[in-house]
Design brief:
The chain has about 240 residues and is an alpha/beta fold. The chain has 8 helices and 10 strands. It has 2 domains: about 150 residues, SPOUT methyltransferase, trefoil knot domain (Alpha/beta knot, 3-Layer(aba) Sandwich), CATH 3.40.1280.10; about 55 residues, Trp Operon Repressor, Chain A (Orthogonal Bundle). Strand 9 and strand 10 form a beta hairpin.
């Protein structure tokens, strides 16, 4: 996968893309990153990328020209099929694991990180394929949102994580929250690991884990159960959990 980021603050990405799983993914050649300051594409001598909004109002609006030209240049350089162009925006679709899985199937992603009051509407209607929000709150710019989306997408690429089952069983990937985890020692300060996990009975362990996922989802995110396709066994287990 190729990931391009258009931002006015490219230095913000150095630590994130150069650390942990995102760094290892690039070393494994599963992904390549390119961060570009779209101010370089401004067509005026002062390199300004924003202007006052038509009709008046507070704040400044990002001009269409630098973004249009920057995206055109990235598409031409890539030479591959049409990329997904993602605009980080409070008005966008709420980001989810399902969206991360969808984007992880792409060959080329371009992220546009804005600042100021907003974007010229022509950027949304003629350049962007996806508008994404990471939550119902306002940030100073799209950079942090882009980092969140990139991290969640890259870890899903084949070969990036050591255990290929890890992303499959993550919270939200199955539709439920993940079950509790334990490791050594079996008894820490008198707090013991559930006996079932020490039994060696893998079928019963898997049943316990499913029940605990249902329990955790029911108590913490019951909304997730509304659209979750429960199997007949899971329906029985969920009723047992409710009785508990």
């Amino acid at each position: 996968m190729k990931i391009d980021v258009l931002t006015l603050f490219p230095e913000m990405f150095a630590g994130v893309l150069g650390s942990s799983i995102l760094k290892k993914a690039q070393e494994k050649e599963a992904v390549s990153y390119n961060v570009t300051n779209f101010r370089e594409f401004a067509d005026n001598k002062h390199n300004t990328v924003d202007d006052y909004p038509y009709g008046g109002g507070a704040g400044m609006v990002l001009k269409p020209q630098p973004i249009f030209d920057a995206v055109d240049a990235l598409k031409k350089e890539a030479g591959s099929k049409e990329p997904r162009v993602v605009l980080l925006c409070p008005q966008g679709e709420r980001f989810s694991q399902k969206k991360a899985e969808e984007l992880s199937q792409e060959e080329h992603l371009i992220f546009i990180c804005g600042h100021y009051e907003g974007y010229d509407e022509r950027i949304r209607t003629h350049v962007v394929t996806d508008e994404i929000s990471i939550g119902d709150y306002v940030l100073t710019g799209g950079e942090l949102g882009a980092m969140v989306v990139i991290d969640s997408v890259v870890r899903l690429l084949p070969g990036v994580l050591g255990n290929e089952e890890s992303p499959i069983k993550d919270s939200f990937s199955t539709g439920l929250l993940e079950h509790p985890h334990y490791t050594r020692p079996a008894d820490f300060r008198g707090i013991k690991v559930p006996d079932i996990l020490l039994s060696g009975n893998h079928a019963r362990i898997e049943e316990w884990r499913t029940k605990e996922s249902l329990r955790r989802t029911l108590t913490r995110r019951p909304d997730l159960l509304e659209n979750y396709p429960l199997s007949e066994k899971e329906k029985i287990w969920l009723e047992e959990v409710k009785k508990d």
